[in-house]
Design goal:
Layout: E1 6-8, H1 10-14, H2 17-33, E2 36-40, H3 46-61, H4 64-67, E3 80-82, E4 99-104, H5 112-115, H6 132-157, E5 173-181, E6 195-198, E7 204-209, E8 215-218, E9 224-226, E10 234-238, H7 240-245, E11 255-257, E12 265-273, E13 279-280, E14 298-299, H8 300-313
Parallel strand pairs: 1-2
Antiparallel strand pairs: 2-10, 3-4, 4-5, 5-12, 6-11, 7-10, 7-12, 8-9, 8-11, 13-14
Length: 317
């Protein structure tokens, strides 16, 4: 059995204030004790989930002539195709055995921040695949809204106004990340994994997985636990930014992916970070005489940049 709780969030989305509070309390316990939780009752259509996985598989199986024109734009843009071995989540260890494709917030061509080349404001790179862009943007926008709804629960649990985070998430640094872990034949070099041990960087991650499994989570005692596949559920976790924002009341938890042998593994991650100019300062309800503020204020963009750049530094070429 997994130590990761399964939380039905339908009452948070559609319930009475009392029902919302019950869900918020459950989310808060998970964020303090484990840092991971599954959510059901999220309302994301099953057929859309299916199309996202199908289109993701089509991208990764497409010829290089499809992927090369949409190659990774670098950490400052954080969009496009990342080749196999192009990322190292656990610095000092061998490169991760995965490939990825990043999609950010879709901006109008005349968006002032895009024209000014503001931090993490770049045009998405769309591969020449029928229906790919429409499917991914539909999914991106729905899961973005779902992530904001989860923040309603976090705010209630932390003693804040329900909508406290809304203005910090209305133009976020959000990344939809398609992931493919190719089949592994034989033992890997020492320390090499599908995805090396790491914590996520932002506020919250919403992960959809196929049936293959492989995600592992480190509990507070240091044991590595399998995160079993829960059909139809998202597995969610707190990232470093929300941990910092909450003055370490919420915790980001180390995790990794061990690719099962001789199987393709696909997952779809959505990372929700605050707006680039959002000020991440310790929440007033998370500061007490016994718990003074641990961190200086920082913008969302500066915090993310500090975490992303080491991930790609050794693979810049």
């Amino acid at each position: 059995m997994s130590a990761i709780p399964v939380i039905d969030i339908a009452p948070l989305l559609n319930g009475s204030p009392q029902e919302q509070r019950i869900v918020a309390d459950a989310l808060g316990r998970a964020c303090r004790e484990v840092g991971f939780f599954y959510i059901t009752g999220h309302g994301i259509p099953k057929d859309l989930m299916t199309r996202v996985f199908e289109d993701s598989a089509a991208l990764f199986s497409a010829p290089a002539s499809v992927r090369d024109p949409v190659s990774f734009s670098g950490a400052s843009g954080n969009r496009g195709y990342i080749r196999l071995g192009g990322e190292t989540l656990d610095p000092g260890k061998p490169a991760d055995v995965k490939e990825a494709f990043n999609i950010g917030l879709e901006l109008a061509p005349d968006d002032p921040e895009l024209l000014a080349r503001a931090p993490f404001r770049s045009a998405n790179q769309w591969p020449d695949l029928p229906g790919f862009r429409d499917t991914m943007l539909d999914y991106f926008n729905r899961v973005w809204r779902l992530g904001c709804d989860l923040h309603h629960g976090f705010a209630l649990d932390l003693g804040l106004d329900r909508d406290f985070f809304e203005t910090s998430l209305d133009k976020p640094i959000a990344t939809l990340r398609l992931l493919h872990y190719p089949p592994v034949e034989g033992p890997l070099p020492d320390g090499q994994l599908g995805a090396g041990e790491h914590t996520d960087y932002g506020n919250v991650t919403l992960l959809a997985t196929d049936a293959v499994g492989g995600l592992m989570v480190r509990d507070r005692s240091g044991r590595w636990l399998d995160a079993p596949v829960v059909p139809g559920a998202f597995v969610c976790n707190i990232g470093d930014c929300l941990m910092r924002w909450s003055n370490d009341v919420y915790v980001s938890t180390p995790h990794k992916v061990v690719s099962p042998p001789n199987k393709d593994r696909y997952s779809i991650a959505f990372f929700l970070d605050p707006n680039p100019d959002a000020m991440v300062a310790c929440l007033p309800t998370c500061i007490t005489p016994d718990r003074p503020a641990k961190y200086a204020p920082i913008t969302g963009a500066d915090f993310l940049r500090s975490r992303l750049e080491p991930t790609y530094a050794s693979k810049a070429s």
